[in-house]
């Protein structure tokens, strides 16, 4: 079997660009701002909501599993996490009967309480349903965290804390979001405070 032409060069370039996307100080700065918010949510028993579209919806679901199941150390309580992309019947009902831009916002209006946390994931930072949900969350008194890239879009200015991947590549933006997820999970599991 012959090797596809240009594969090695393409792979090397992709990996170099991915490393560059991770080498900026924004990752550490973002983690420094996110961890205290999640620690307080855990301490107070607040809920952390996650949402996004497409690949970002998958990342949101991944966050829910890792941060609620894996990210616990010693006697520390677990984080209460809910994925708003995961309830497909609810998602499709809101989209069909009202407006797709409201699929996450309407769920937050029902489920969220002041002091909760909403983590919005949008590679472009301009997904209407993500932005609508962040606006709804802020109206309820929910702390908002935005994970984005490609300049940050509107989410960069709307979220209380925004982590903007300095890349115009959707793939590298999503790569970094998953690395950030695993970094946070590993911290809570291996190094974070272990007691109430």
Secondary-structure map:
Layout: H1 7-22, H2 26-44, E1 47-52, H3 55-70, E2 80-83, H4 88-97, H5 103-111, E3 117-121, H6 128-140, E4 143-149, H7 155-158, E5 161-165, H8 170-190
Parallel strand pairs: 1-2, 1-3, 3-4, 4-5
SS summary, helix count? 8
The low-confidence runs, each spanning 5 or more residues with pLDDT under 50, are none
Mean pLDDT: 93
Number of domains: 1
At the fourth level of CATH, the homologous superfamily is: Glucose-6-phosphate isomerase like protein, domain 1
Sheet having the most strands: 5 strands, parallel
What fraction of the residues are assigned to beta strands by DSSP? 5-15%
CATH uppermost class = Alpha Beta
β-strand number: 5
Helix content: 55-70%
CATH architecture descriptor: 3-Layer(aba) Sandwich
What name is given to the CATH topology? Answer: Rossmann fold
Can you describe what's shown?
With 196 residues, the chain is an alpha/beta fold. Helix content is 55%, strand content 14%. The chain has a 5-stranded parallel β-sheet, sandwiched between helices. The longest helix has 21 residues, at 170-190. It is globular. The termini are far apart. The mean pLDDT is 93.
């Amino acid at each position: 079997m012959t090797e596809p032409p240009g594969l090695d060069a393409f792979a090397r370039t992709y990996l170099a660009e991915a490393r560059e996307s991770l080498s900026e100080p924004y990752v550490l700065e973002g983690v420094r701002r996110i961890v205290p918010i999640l620690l307080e949510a855990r301490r107070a028993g607040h809920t952390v909501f996650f949402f996004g579209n497409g690949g970002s919806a998958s990342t949101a679901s991944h966050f829910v599993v890792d941060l609620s199941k894996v990210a616990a150390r010693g006697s520390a309580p677990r984080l209460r996490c809910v994925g708003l992309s995961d309830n497909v019947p609810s998602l499709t009902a809101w989209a069909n009967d009202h407006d797709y831009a409201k699929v996450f916002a309407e769920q937050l209006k029902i489920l969220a309480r002041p002091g909760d946390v909403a983590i919005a994931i949008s590679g472009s930072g301009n997904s209407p349903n993500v932005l609508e949900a962040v606006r709804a969350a802020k109206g309820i008194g929910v702390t908002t965290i935005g994970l984005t890239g490609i300049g940050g879009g509107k989410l960069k200015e709307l979220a209380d804390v925004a982590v903007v991947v300095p890349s115009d590549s959707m793939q590298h933006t999503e790569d970094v979001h998953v690395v950030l997820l695993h970094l946070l999970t590993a911290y809570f599991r291996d190094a974070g405070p272990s007691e109430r």
